[in-house]
Amino acid sequence: MVLSLSYRRPVYVSPSRQSLDSEKGGQAESVTSSTSSPYGIPDALSFDRIISNGTCPPVTIREFMDFLRYIEYDAENLQFYLWYRGYCERFAQLPESEQQLAKEWTPEQALAEKTSAEKEKLPKKIAPEAAAALKGTDFDPQARVVIPEAVHNPFNTPPRTPSATDRDSVAPSTVGWSEDGSTLPAGSLNHGQKTQTAFNEAGTLQPFTIQPFREEISRIIAIYIADGGARLLNLSAKEKSVLLKALSVTTHPSAFRDVVATVEWTLRHQAHPNFIRWTICNGNPPRQAFARGLGVGGIVAGIVYAIVITLSSANRGWRALAFLGFFIGISTLFAAWKGMCVVLHGMHHRHLRPWELFQDSETASAEYASGKGSFDSVGSGNSYEDEPWVAQYEKRNVIRKIFDREVWIKEPALRQIQDTIFVQALITAFVIGAIITAVFLAVPRGNYF
């Protein structure tokens, strides 16, 4: 069996055509109808298995979150998706009287809002007679409005830049940057004001405050939807407008139907395959470079030995020993090209990631259980440049990074994938090494020394 994890451009399916589980029963339905994983990934490492905690390290949801945060810088999609799953469950557990306050947002309503948003972008048409009469005037629709670079307003007083003395006298809540990563001073714009601004920009009415989870929805909008949010999702203007109009009417989970479809599609067809390819690599980048160097060195040593023996008067059979250099070098280089170190694979070990080296396992488990850090759905931004492990890892020399701490790979399906790649490396090395060795065996002796 040949396992292929090479990248293939997925065929995009419009979220409007994807069916989500009716959020009834507290479960969110997948955007895909098939259960098998694409791109040659086994079902044991499928997206659903990882999300439902059905896998072992290093392919758990915690490693998935770390990969999105530290490698792909796209953790907000998974954070929002996990929040939505939990929100569906909590909404389904509400009493029937509270659920009636937030009606379901039907697909027909969503389609009507999409059509309205598209019509608003269309240019306004006027009669040809009116256009001819207005031509050359200030009301000419074809005329381009020229905005001067600077217009002096006599009633506008520009703000004065505070000096060091002024900053000391200002309250701490109005100085500096906000924790959510916006460029506004801390405390100047809370979640409620951000949400209200987002609703105003979308042209919607203010929502009913008696609906269940309205305060939580307000925080989610401020963090994931509103401009300047700490974990802003990559949504189009139309998707954002339709979502805000839906949330201004109801807090039912169905209001997020189209947005969740887009987020889940990205997680399933982009983030998840990239995560599986990344977990196959059992060594860190310095170790992979070191393995490639060993592979190239083995091949060069085999070629040099074969040339020397061929030019000498030694028996032809001695040339066959060059096959060992070719076999070891090619297999090591092939495995390193896939991100694997054959030495680590022989023990089914992997290097600890940089953020794992300086992290206490008990502390990490406690933070995961309490929902702190990356798993906090309404937490701060995903920036990690100020975390202590970044500076500590940079201080390590290259030799120490090559021989970093190792840990056993517990996931059987991942070990099976690595075994398959290792067998592929051995077969490739045997075939290519045998061909090169046969070429040297066919060359007559040089008898130069």
Automatic annotation (TrEMBL):
The lineage of its organism: Eukaryota, Fungi, Dikarya, Ascomycota, Pezizomycotina. InterPro entries: RGS_sf, RGS_subdomain_2. Keywords: Membrane, Transmembrane, Transmembrane helix. This is RGS domain-containing protein. Residues 16-37, 148-183 are annotated as: Disordered. It comes from the Eukaryota. The chain crosses the membrane at residues 294-314, 320-344, 421-443.
